[in-house]
Amino acid sequence: MLPCYKSIIYKEQEDLTLRPRCCLQCSESPGGLQGGRSTEQGDRDQLQELYSDGNLTVLATAPLPHQNPVQLDFHFCLTPQTSAHWHGLLHDRRLFLDIPRRALDQGNRESLTATLEYVEEKTNVGSVFVNFQNDRNDRGALLRAFSYMGFELVRPDDPILPPWDNVIFMVYPLERDLGDLPSEPP
Fold first, then answer.
1. What is each CA distance from 9 to 44, 47, 61, 96, 97, in whole angstroms?
2. How far is CA 119 from CA 6, 82, 124, 133, 186, in A?
3. 168, 132 in Cβ contact below 8 A?
4. How would residue 32 be classed by pLDDT, with cut points 50, 70 and 90?
5. What pLDDT sits at residue 181?
6. Closest to 186 in 3D by CA, of 136, 120, 126, 92
7. Which pLDDT score is estimated for 101?
8. 3-state secondary structure 123-179
9. Is the pLDDT of residue 92 over 80?
10. pLDDT tens, residue by residue, 97-153
């Protein structure tokens, strides 16, 4: 675990009415993602490493599985100095990921692939939802790229979605057999 991860502590309990927080190490923090929350020092829910293999490190505010929504951060090392970060909330076998700025860069595509592989192989998640602000300049390119990867657009009034304003959601359903589910959390 990198020393900087030990200092991240979350104060609020996770709730799907709140957006995923941006971590202190990524380019989305502190004012990058509109509507996202930055992490703060405190004494409540400390970010813990769940998994690390190769270039991917997965951090969470609570061990998996958990009844309440859990903040998950996926950090993918691109070079010794840079990494791509995906921030999400996991709840009821659904993972909601914020699409970072520059998501269409090669490194971010690799990091998304590693994130999806982790989710499919190490968790019991049934659907991965990506979301981005409706007013992003790269909205059309994001819709095309994620559609090409197998994500489908979700109606804004779908009751399964969290109540986040001005957001476009796309879903990637993970096809699972009962034998595919992991027996233990990572």
1. 7, 6, 8, 20, 20
2. 23, 22, 8, 23, 10
3. yes
4. very low
5. 53
6. 120
7. 83
8. CCCCEEEEEEECCCCCHHHHHHHHHHCCCEECCCCCCCCCCCCCEEEEEEECCCCHH
9. yes
10. 999 888 888 778 899 999 999 999 999 999 999 999 999 999 999 999 999 999 999
Flag whether pLDDT at 37 surpasses 50.
no
Tell me if 12 sits within 8 A of 18, measured CB to CB: yes
Query: CA separation (Å) from 11 to 5, 7, 21, 174, 181?
Result: 15, 13, 11, 32, 31
| pTM assigned to the model | 0.76
d(Cα 94, Cα 84) in Å, to the nearest integer? 22
C-beta pairs of 63-71 under 8 Å, 24+ apart in sequence: 63/185, 64/90, 64/123, 64/185, 64/186, 65/124, 65/185, 66/90, 68/13, 68/14, 68/15, 69/14, 69/15, 69/16, 70/14, 71/10, 71/14, 71/20, 71/21, 71/45, 71/47
Cα–Cα distance for residue pair 72/23, rounded to 1 Å: 10
Residue 81: per-residue pLDDT? 86
CB 46 within 8 A of CB 80: no
Quick count: other Cβ atoms within 10 Å of Cβ 89? 24
